[in-house]
Amino acid sequence: MKLISLYVEKDTFIHSLAPFTKLTYAFTSVVVTLMFPSLVVGIIFFFMSLLICLLARVTKHMLALLSVVAILSISLLIIQGMFYTGNKTVLFSVYKLAFYKEGLLHAAVLILRLLNMIISFGILILTTRPSDLIDNLIQKGLSPRLGYVLSSVLQIIPQMLSTASTIMDAQRSRGLEMEGSLIKKLKAFFALIGPLVLSSLVEARERAIAIEVRGFGIQGKKTTLREIKESNLDIVLTKTFQIFLLVSIIWRVLLWIL
């Protein structure tokens, strides 16, 4: 059975890295860009994440994720450019609407943070199988119950999209019209939402029964059939990201104190 996830099968250097290494990078890039509201820091991590995305050859799929926040980015530019509290210098005007330099720079920092967050965690999701990520985290000491919750979260959207597509095909075969006026689209929506919710509940129940049959609720130390091995490069990269994050946090705390 095909695994339902956003994972893209590729034979690249990024795909071969351990899941925990990619997770550490994503967490580090997001935290550092949030701690330091600097355009330079945002640009550095943005291009670094973009380079990793190119090396992983998942740019096409990443663009689909980034398109979701396109409208939000434009809204940030307009709102911050016009109404940011620190606005002083008028940069240009459009139909008597003034856009300020300070607001646009602040909006650029916010947008870079948002894009970097999506790209860095998108790399993790697109280049890592959910099962590998959860197994690696459990090997690092994560609770198996919490691991199951994370695994469900990673798969719920792709799974619901796949189920919705199947239901839509079934409804079309029965003569239901999906296109047309607003009334027809509402009827199609209600014809879709009912079976989708019910099928999701049934799948959740079946999954709960399946994992209990496999001894999920048994107390004691659990073993795994497959162990995620970390190379020397994974260890070096992980330690480097962790040290960089620790130094960044200490530096930021010192800046706050001083």
Radius of gyration using CA atoms only: 23 Å
Overall average pLDDT: 82
Percent of residues in β-strands: under 5%
Structural class: mainly alpha
Please count the beta strands (DSSP E, at least 2 residues each): 2
Order of helices and strands: HHHHHEEHHHHH
Task: Report the principal-axis shape.
Answer: flat
Percentage of residues assigned to helices:
over 70%
Q: Distance between the terminal alpha carbons, to the nearest Å?
A: 58 Å
User: Major β-sheet, in short?
Assistant: 2 strands, antiparallel
Q: Order of strands across the widest beta sheet? A: 1-2
- Work out the helix count: 10
Low-confidence stretches: none
Task: Describe, in plain words, how this protein is organized in 3D.
The protein is mainly α. It has helices spanning 13-16, 19-35, 39-56, 59-66, 70-83, 101-127, 130-139, 144-173, 182-213, 232-257, and strands spanning 90-94, 97-100. A two-stranded antiparallel sheet has the order 1-2. Strand 1 (90-94) and strand 2 (97-100) form a beta hairpin. The protein starts with 12 loop residues before the first helix and ends with a helix. The model has no long low-confidence stretch (mean pLDDT 82).
